[in-house]
Amino acid sequence: MSRALAIVNCAQVVTLAGSNCARSGAGMRQLGILNGSALFIENGRISAVGARPEIERRLGRYDELIDAGGRVAMPGFVDAHTHAVFASTRCAEFERRCEGATYEEIAAAGGGILETVRQTRQATEDHLLEAALRHEQWFLRNGTTTAEAKSGYGLTLDDELKMLRVIRRLNDGGRMHWVPTFLGAHAVPEEYRGRRREYVELVCEAMLPAVAGQGLVRYCDAFCEPSAFSIDETRAVLSKAAALGLGLRLHADQLTCSGAAELAASLGAATADHLEQTGASGIAALHAAGVQPVLLPGSVYALGRSRYARARDMIDAGLAVVLATDFNPGSSPTPSIPMVLSLACAQMHMTPAEAITATTINAAWSLGLGHETGSLEAGKRADVLIADCADYRELAYFFGVEHAWLVIAGGEAVWRR
Ligand SMILES: [Zn+2]
Questions:
Q1: pLDDT digits 0-9 by tens, 55-86
Q2: What pLDDT is recorded for position 2?
Q3: Which of 151, 386, 410, 414 has the most crowded CB, counting CB atoms within 10 A?
């Protein structure tokens, strides 16, 4: 049965409508705002955006009316980089960092990612799902309706498959839309210490064919960093993934400028993520190859650092910048895109409009979903955030506030205040 929903009395409808590709340059500031407008949804899809009387004349009846009360309606956020499935927390390690230990010292002593690997291996699939559902609830109440999620805390074939099945079960739950990414090359696990070549072989020859063969992933990622996987190792893993038909993303130039941005360009990756250390030559290479940068200021903030990615230079160079949370239990324990908007504007000198573009339509294109979500226009999935403010700039301006008033995913209310 067809079901029609009208959302009326919006101070602003931030549509981001009208582009067939990710936005770059001055285009990142064009939000396509309609003042005092309404939004109509039929069967989980947006059917019209515009002036209420005109739409009512054209579309006739609706089954449910939501009065937005002079608030802002905009696309649900798209978070293009998360590690949302993990067991336990690392709050004890966080306390040690507060006392002065560095992230690298903790990792070298067997903590960090490997601690989460131990906890995640021990967890049953059901327990892992329970933890992931708690995280999903946090994403929703912050206005995120689509997110990428990586494996990478299993690092055995069985444990990686377990994580990816949890992501599939999140999707089956039907509240948020999740895009699965395989990250077997996240760290060399303890049992392969001193045998890293064998571990890379395991990832390429056993894990990748299995996860791709079972249809559990859309992308493959690798942590390209001298302390994780070298340029050559990363190239081997991602080349194999491309041959299996997966899209490519990579953790690039987070801690050192190692040429990872150039590698992303040479591989034709969809995204290069982090890029805190990337300089002019890396930016030029990304631009020439059409790779989207995914910037993750939450991890810079949470690690107590000050060197953010050069967002301004990237936008000026014509890159279609994306912002994401990097939600994970170690370096970026936040699921909040509004927090990322604040960091992007206050620390990276992006404008609120650019930051909104980077967390909606540009993020959607980076996940191959630009025709499906990330903007409010007829035909797209009805993923809508109604924020409790009358001007979209408040989302980046007031920080530490829960802005979401109503969150709709696929036409269904999934969170309301
Ligand atoms: Zn990450």
A1: 888 777 788 999 999 999 999 999 999 999 99
A2: 65
A3: 151
How far does residue 263's CA lie from ligand 1's centre (Å)? Answer: 17
Question: Looking at this protein, which amino acid is placed at residue 19?
Answer: S
- Cα of 54 vs centre of ligand 1, distance in Å, is 45
Q: How far is the CA of 179 from the centre of ligand 1 (A)?
A: 14
252 C-alpha to center of ligand 1: Å? 10
Please state, rounded to an integer, the average pLDDT across all residues of the chain.
96
pLDDT tens for each residue of 23-42? 999 999 999 999 999 999 99
CA–centroid distance, residue 176 to ligand 1 (Å): 20
Buried b or exposed e, range 119-137, using 16+ CB within 10 angstroms? bbbebeeeebbebbeebbe
The alpha carbon of 72 and the centre of ligand 1 are apart by a number of angstroms equal to 30
Distance 128 CA to ligand 1 centre (A): 19
Q: How remote is the CA of residue 37 from the centroid of ligand 1, in Å? A: 38
In contact, 282 and 269? CB cutoff 8 Å: no
Protein residues near ligand 1, an ion, with CB under 5 A: 326
Strands in 64-75's sheet, in edge-to-edge order, are 45-50, 33-42, 4-14, 64-75, 384-387, 404-409, 412-416
Give the model's confidence band at 52: pLDDT under 50 very low, under 70 low, under 90 confident, else very high. Answer: confident
pLDDT at 204: 98
d(CA 40, CA 38): 7
Shortest CA distance to 325 belongs to which of 376, 363, 283? Answer: 363
Of the candidates 302, 396, 299, the residue with the CA atom closest to the CA atom of residue 350: 396
Cβ-based neighbours of 239, under 8 Å, separated by 6 or more: 267
Query: Which residue in 396, 391, 295 sits closest to 339, CA to CA?
Result: 396
pLDDT of residue 415 exceeding 80: yes
CA separation for the pair 352, 184 (Å, rounded): 35
- CA 157 – CA 202 distance, rounded (Å): 9
Residue 82, beta-bridge partner list: 327
Instruction: Measure the CA–CA gap between 139 and 220, rounded to whole angstroms.
Output: 23
